[in-house]
Amino acid sequence: MITEEYINGLRDELRQHNYNYYILDNPTISDFDFDQKLKELQAIEAAHPEFYDANSPTQRVGGTITKNFETIVHDHRMYSLDNSYSKDDLLDWEKRIKKMVDGEVQYTCELKYDGASMNLTYENGKLLRAVTRGDGYQGDEVTANVKTINTVPLQLKGDFPSRFDIRGEIILPIEGFLKMNEERVANDEEPYRNPRNTASGSLKLQDSTEVAKRPLECLLYSIKGDNLNIQSQFEGLEKARSWGFKVPKEAKLVNSIDEVLEYINYWDQHRHELPYEIDGVVVKVNSLFQQDELGFTAKAPRWAMAYKFKAEQVSTVLNEITYQVGRTGAITPVANLEPVQLAGTIVKRASLHNADQIEKLDIREGDTVYVEKGGEIIPKIIAVDLNQRPINSVPTEYIGECPECGTELQRIEGEAKHYCPNFNHCPPQVIGRIQHFISRKAMDIEGLGGETVALLVKENLISNYADLYELTKEQVLPLERMAEKSAENLINGIEKSKEIPFERVLFALGIRYVGETVAKKLAKHYKNIDNLLFASTLDLTNVDEIGERIAESVVEFFSSEANRSSVERLKSYGVQLEISKEKLANQTNILQGHTYVVSGVFETVSRNELKKLIEDNGGKVGSSISSKTNFLVAGDKMGPSKRAKAETLGIPIISELDFLNKLKA
Ligand code: AMP
Ligand code: ZN
Asked: What is residue 367's three-state secondary structure?
């Protein structure tokens, strides 16, 4: 008689062997014996479905088909990392840190694994779900595929928190990658380009059995959650290791930037000895308290810095220069290259940025050029090999007319790029603007994608974003790949976008230089579109952090009859063109003109809530104390040097309570 205890014992045993083999690299039984035990477990589970366990070692072999990966919003946003390329960059970073935190700073140095980032959520020691980074806010749920990766524990050991997120990089070790390619070549299939793309592509395979066949690994580097009882990055790594995760031993705790540089130099020399690819080193402020003090910019933590190894270079022939038109009309010249292998990928195109750059380097078609790949996806041309210039070579003449609509290009004083001024009729601009309007951070129109927009424009169903709101199901149904359901979703998605708040609508309008942050500022200051419409350049530049370039761009946008009419139409359809009543109710101007620095730990509100309160009431939050600071709001555990600095500068230090009372008054 098979009991549940017996099954669980077998599962535990297999888990331990798996751990010995994949994490410790120290197997204690033969592969054959392991397979025998696994087969036994499979047989028992098949006969006893009542003892099913989603995290059983048998789940690693795959067998799940996922047709659509579900989108999941991350509990904690997955930020990007700031990059540095030199010692000076790192020293500047250190200076910025020292301004914002007190006391000694230690750093954890880690390798920057080159793969696909992954967020794993564990609940009560079991893997709950695995989600790709996506855009940082939300990603795809790929749990079934990730379960097949042997270095991802399905059941944790030791003293783990009841629920937490852990982040890592899914990588494909070089040896495994080469072996996969050998097989592909033997089967007359195109070899994969590089380990990184193959790793990230694997995560989105529909059949998890296929994923199970690939020798993927997951290397962990960060834990997120509440009440974790972890004080430092390095401690977090050690704890993760003790719970059964694979955390590379190369991570090192150091005491100075000099030691950071030593670590970097060492790994720049020795990186090819590692079993997997790295593209640099990640340096993190070790203390989590200091990390918290430093916080985040819009894109990345202030407490971490990636150091990218020097880019690799190759030379190749530039076949042709073509020109692309962006959604704002900006022209980007593109170098079409003789395909060449560079840093693990095949490069066919490179960005040339603008006319000046072409002129400066005297880049010509037919030239042999040096191409470099830094952190960015599109490589760039850094030099021309003049010795190899063909005799019949002619200097590049930059285009004078838009390649898409034939309009004469313009170049605004002091700007590097040429523009096509035919904003309302140049096809890539028309399409690009609508694509921006519907994008996730803008109107987030579900059921409508970039390709459908292009199709709708091509079919003359829409020619600007206001037209979207007059589309009917009958109109879109005949389109390619449209079905009853998808047409319905599209129309519903558009309808639902009428609830998107004013600040995002403002961003969606696609005013040049008005990004998310600027849109927020403008929405907050002007409260509704009519106020903004009549604002002068002078008036606009008086708004905090709005410079002349942005101000002029806003004025220019609303001086166009076409733009004003689009906005009027959006208003008539019920799109939000003013700040919502609730938001308005919670906002005042009582802190107007005052800059606050917030430091320490607070009792009644979190540090972020405090910052939000300051901003909602018209104040500004500064990141470090300077003569421009008006008040320092001091919480518990604020460092002594911050206090000393505020005192020397004569800046009033107030408590959380003082501050909250100020708001009530
Ligand atoms: P980037 O994509 O260049 O902004 O770099 C950020 C990415 O680096 C993160 O999303 C991670 O996927 C990856 N990464 C690799 N190794 C590490 C590490 N040790 N710590 C943090 N991030 C890492
Ligand atoms: Zn054009």
From this structure: coil
612 touches 622 (CB < 8 A):
no
Beta carbons within 10 angstroms of residue 646's beta carbon: 20
For residues 472 and 419, the answer to whether their CB atoms sit within 8 Å is no
Contacts of 213 by beta carbon, 8 Å cutoff, 6+ apart: none
Distance CA 650, CA 645 (A): 8
Query: Nearest Cα to 198, choosing from 169, 171, 234, 168?
Result: 171
Using alpha carbons, list the distances in angstroms from residue 526 to 379, 518, 569, 577, 585: 41, 12, 20, 11, 15
How many A from CA of 81 to the centre of ligand 1? Answer: 7
- Global pTM reads 0.62
Task: Tell me the sheet residues that pair with 296.
Answer: 301
Structure tokens at 379: 């490589």
CA-based R_g, the chain, Å:
28
Q: What's the rounded Cα separation, in Å, for the pair 566 and 558?
A: 10
The mean-pLDDT minimum among 135-149, 184-198, 625-639 falls in: 184-198
Closest C-alpha among 213, 219, 185, 181 to residue 197? 181
85-111: per-residue pLDDT in tens? 888 999 999 999 999 998 899 999 999
Q: How far is the CA of 248 from the centre of ligand 2 (A)?
A: 52
Question: In this structure, what token pair is assigned to residue 431?
Answer: 């399409």
Cβ(143)–Cβ(129) under 8 Å? Answer: yes
pLDDT digits (tens, 9 = 90+) for 131-152: 999 999 999 999 999 999 999 9
Residues 459 and 479: beta-carbon distance below 8 Å: yes
Contact 133, 220 (CB under 8 A): no
Which of ligand 1's atoms lies nearest the C-alpha of 308?
A: 3
Q: Is the CB of 332 under 6 A from ligand 1?
A: no
Among 172, 174, 181, residue whose Cα is nearest residue 218: 172
Q: What is the distance of C-alpha 399 from the center of its chain?
A: 35
- CA nearest neighbour of 588 among 476, 480, 663, 504: 663
C-alpha–C-alpha distance, residues 318 and 358, integer Å:
12
The Cβ of residue 21 has, within 10 Å, a number of other Cβ atoms equal to 17
Q: Are strands 620-622 and 595-599 parallel, antiparallel or unpaired?
A: parallel
Smallest CA-to-CA distance from 343 within 273, 261, 280, 262 is with 280
Confidence band for 47, pLDDT divided at 50, 70 and 90: very high
| Cβ of 80 less than 6 Å from ligand 1 | yes
The question of whether 360 is a catalytic residue gets the answer no
Whether 617 has a pLDDT exceeding 80, the answer reads yes
Residue 166 in contact with residue 240, Cβ under 8 Å?
A: yes
Atom of ligand 1 nearest to the CA of 284: 20
